[in-house]
Amino acid sequence: MSPTQVWKHHSTETTDPKVRKNHLDTDHFLATFVSIDKIYYQMILETEDYQTSTHYKKLVQILGTKAMQWRIKSPFDFIAIATEGVGSQIIENFWTHFGLSKSETSKLLNISEPTLYRWTRSEKKLERNYAIQIFELTDLFLYGEEVFESQHNFFQWLELPNMALGGFEPREVLEIPGGLSKVRDLLGRIDHGVFS
């Protein structure tokens, strides 16, 4: 039996009007408290939804609204979108927005510069895994900008050796398989005030 059910059970059993009134006042208090709690919780969810939707809207704008005609609600949408197929133009949009060179971009994608050049000149759709990688890199870079409050500060942090990453620079770690999740975890710790 929940606390509210216990109070209602007791308030209906008694015949004393004073005791019954006290129980009813308590019921009203509990109902009000639960309502306020639900409203507060809903406000938190709506704020998180707003921040998330704003983040993903910006991601779509960066990669190009022409190439990205889907609504993204979570990173799991990256898989569905990449499976449908995305044009290689998103790679160029990515490096242009973040001011990266083709060399830096090819290292992040673990491909050669000539391959990157061929992909961006073709009208073909990207292979699923590379499309997901571009989505995740864009997502990470946006998150880094949010955490460090500017692209400049985030990019400086990417170049600094970090003990939490074994002394490697975050940018170096991004270039290895599984490195993106390690850098994202580290950004999450920084965002939550954990010394990293």
Describe this structure in words.
- This is DUF2384 domain-containing protein.
- InterPro entries: Xre-like_HTH (IPR046847), Xre/MbcA/ParS-like_toxin-bd (IPR024467).
- The chain is mainly α.
- It has two domains: 63 residues; 131 residues, no CATH class.
- It is 72% helix and 0% strand.
- The chain is built from ten helices and no strands.
- Helix 1 runs antiparallel to helix 2.
- The longest helix has 47 residues.
- The radius of gyration is 25 Å and the shape is globular.
- The two termini are 45 Å apart.
- The N terminus is likely disordered.
Provide the helix percentage: over 70%
Tell me the β content: under 5%
Instruction: Count up the helices.
Output: 10
Q: What best-fitting shape do the alpha-carbon axes yield?
A: globular
Structural class label: mainly alpha
Strand segment tally: 0
Order of helices and strands: HHHHHHHHHH
Distance between the termini: 45 Å
Mean of residue pLDDT values: 78
- Whole-number tally of structural domains: 2
Major sheet: none
Uncertain stretches: 1-11, 40-51
Radius of gyration: 25 Å
Oligomeric state, counting identical vs distinct chains: single chain
Protein name: DUF2384 domain-containing protein
